[in-house]
Amino acid sequence: MDSRQAITPELREWLLAQVVAGHRAERVLASMQASGWDTIVALDAIREVLPDVACELAQDVAAMPGLPDGSGHCIQVHDREVEVVLTVQHPRIVVFRELLSDAECDALIDLAQPRLSRSETVVNRTGESEVNAARTSQGMFFSRGEGELVSAIEARIAALLSWPVERGEGLQVLRYGVGAEYRPHFDYFDPAQAGTQAILKRGGQRVGTLLMYLNTPDAGGATTFPDAGIEVQALRGSAVFFSYSQPSPLTRTLHGGAPVQAGEKWVATKWLRASRFD
């Protein structure tokens, strides 16, 4: 590692001085990034030297979506038993198996396919959405509660993650063909951008993401978490959930969809909001 990127005694002293000066973790991180520090190194330094400051990003856990403490490897939720195959504490990631049945996966694809168009992303500076070269998929949105199938899946998700149905966005279905990808990004809305306040008026900040895999690509298409060094394979019927208690890179929820190398990838995404989404 370049000595400039090492966690040295001088860096520790500087970080402690930032706390004394009253700076929040987000401002310390931004200052390090502006000075040329690698984001991962900066995050590790803040967590190592300033654990209490880093923890200011952790809001009341009870107010966040997720599994209750003591959950076992199989959870009976609503109308289905779901298996937990992986949990990570930081970032908070949970991988589920058999969240959706094969029939449900097929039905969602069939319902979504005629309504697909080029996927767009939210532009934080304006609050609008637009086509982005970083996202090369096709997609569509179901309205919340649109039909029996969508309603049943939303009720299952609400029970699994202890989060009310009305605090979720409509289900989005995406199709990725060969070579299609979604480059690493965060799902929360950047509070520093001008358009974010307009977005937050409708449901508040995003606090969690559930990504459900509707098929298994022939090759490629994994969900990656670069800051955490984690890769989740896209397997039909399974899902990955991750939450972010603050809109900050310190949550380590940077993630992306790796390019599909063969076949295609179909996913359904449910974003959870801090308050009622209408």
List keywords for this structure.
9-stranded antiparallel beta sheet; 27% strand; 278 residues; 17 strands
Would you kindly provide a written description of the structure presented here, covering whatever features stand out?
- Helix 2 runs antiparallel to helix 3 (39-49).
- The longest helix has 15 residues, at 147-161.
- Strands 1-2-3-14-10-17-8-7-4 form a 9-stranded antiparallel sheet. The chain has a 4-stranded antiparallel sheet with strand order 9-15-12-13, with no helix packed on it. It has a two-stranded antiparallel ribbon with strand order 5-6.
- Strand 12 (223-225) and strand 13 (230-232) form a beta hairpin.
- The chain has 278 residues and is of the alpha+beta class.
- It is globular and about 60 Å long.
- The protein contains 7 helices and 17 strands.
- Mean pLDDT is 87; it is low at 57-62.
- The N and C termini lie far apart (48 Å).
Shape: globular
Please give the largest β-sheet.
Answer: 9 strands, antiparallel
Round the Cα radius of gyration to an integer and report it. Answer: 19 Å
Distance between the termini: 48 Å
Q: Please work out how many helical segments DSSP would assign.
A: 7
Structural category:
alpha+beta
According to DSSP, the number of beta strands is 17
What is the element string, with H for helices and E for strands?
A: HHHHEEEHEEEEHEEHEEEEEEEE
Mean pLDDT: 87
Percent strand equals 25-35%
Helix content: 10-25%
Spatial strand order of the main sheet: 1-2-3-14-10-17-8-7-4
**Chain oligomer state:** single chain
The stretches of 5 or more residues where confidence is low (pLDDT under 50) are: 57-62
